[in-house]
């Protein structure tokens, strides 16, 4: 029997086939889950539509701007109508203005700080709140974070601060959702060549640095992130909540 047979989930954050969200969605689907997807704006609709369609022509696909409460409310109303309940949710959503990911952190504008935190951290709170009424049988919520939340990664800048807020939010949400048997965790992935990552200055050098310094002497593979996402969604992780799991070939343990 598949690990996630009979589970119903929703995935936020697929942009294209290289997205970490897509790697986890594929793993969840393979493990037996039925999934719905959202996309951010018309520019990404065709990509996500094509990918989601590989799971079946009836796969639920909806637009969602996570900075708009009315979009979030509509998405979960549609999920409620189609699924009736929800067991899984993936939050793989982050954004900061490009100029905030260049130069010095000290030059972060008030607006860039607001946008980064609204999209990358507050959205998790808003989505969990909207999902809660549908998660009547317990479940698992997974967010995506990065090591720049706890150590300085040049050029990651305000996104690192927003990811720190995301991780703290994960702990508080885990406490709130615990009585409903809903677990909330984050995966801290090593660098992966995604659309979002390519917006970070010096990303290619970052990949080389990880490969040289991580104990496993390589970078993480998307399939490995999918496997971790499936573990966190499964009964095997039934006692794990409020945690950040590092899936980075061991890089996080290194001092030098």
Structure in words:
- The chain has 256 residues and is an alpha/beta fold.
- Helix content is 40%, strand content 14%.
- It has a seven-stranded parallel sheet with strand order 3-2-1-4-5-6-7, with helices on both faces.
- The radius of gyration is 17 Å and the shape is globular.
- The mean pLDDT is 95.
Write the topology of this structure.
Layout: E1 8-12, H1 20-30, E2 34-39, H2 42-53, E3 61-63, H3 69-83, E4 88-91, H4 110-131, E5 139-145, H5 158-177, E6 182-189, H6 203-213, H7 222-233, E7 244-247
Parallel strand pairs: 1-2, 1-4, 2-3, 4-5, 5-6, 6-7
Helix pairs in contact: 1-7, 3-4, 4-5
Using the coordinates above, name the CATH class. Alpha Beta
Mean pLDDT: 95
Main sheet: strands, sense, barrel: 7 strands, parallel
Q: If classified by CATH, what would the architecture be? A: 3-Layer(aba) Sandwich
How many strand units? 7
Number of helices: 7
Query: What class, by secondary structure content?
Result: alpha/beta
Alpha carbon gyration radius:
17 Å
> In percent terms, what proportion of residues is strand?
5-15%
- Helix share of residues? 40-55%
Work out the count of structural domains: 1
Give the SSE order as H and E letters.
Answer: EHEHEHEHEHEHHE
Distance between the first and last residues' Cα? 44 Å
The CATH superfamily turns out to be NAD(P)-binding Rossmann-like Domain
The coarse silhouette is globular
Strand order of the largest sheet: 3-2-1-4-5-6-7
Q: What name does CATH use for the topology?
A: Rossmann fold
| Unreliable residue runs | none
């Amino acid at each position: 029997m598949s690990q996630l047979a009979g589970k119903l989930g929703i995935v936020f954050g697929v942009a294209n086939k290289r997205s970490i969200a897509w790697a986890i969605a594929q793993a969840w689907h393979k493990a037996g889950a039925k999934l719905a997807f959202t996309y951010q704006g018309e520019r990404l609709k065709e990509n996500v539509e094509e990918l989601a369609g590989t799971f079946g022509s009836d796969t639920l696909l909806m637009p969602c701007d996570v900075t708009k409460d009315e979009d979030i409310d509509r998405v979960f109303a549609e999920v409620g109508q189609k699924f009736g309940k929800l067991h899984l949710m993936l939050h793989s959503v982050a954004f900061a203005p490009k100029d905030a990911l260049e130069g010095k952190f000290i030059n972060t504008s008030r607006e860039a700080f607001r946008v980064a935190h609204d999209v990358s951290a507050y959205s998790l709170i808003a989505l969990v709140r909207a999902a809660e009424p549908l998660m009547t049988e317990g479940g698992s919520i997974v967010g995506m974070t990065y090591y720049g939340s706890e150590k300085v990664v040049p050029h990651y800048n305000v996104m690192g601060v927003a990811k720190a807020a995301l991780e703290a939010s994960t702990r508080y949400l885990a406490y709130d959702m615990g009585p409903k048997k809903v677990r909330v965790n984050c995966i801290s992935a090593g660098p992966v060549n995604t659309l979002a990552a390519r917006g970070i200055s010096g990303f290619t050098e970052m990949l080389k640095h990880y490969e040289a310094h991580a104990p496993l002497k390589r970078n993480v593979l998307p399939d490995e992130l999918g496997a971790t996402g499936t573990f966190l969604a499964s009964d095997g992780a039934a006692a794990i909540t409020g945690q950040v799991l590092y899936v980075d070939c061991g890089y996080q343990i290194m001092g030098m």
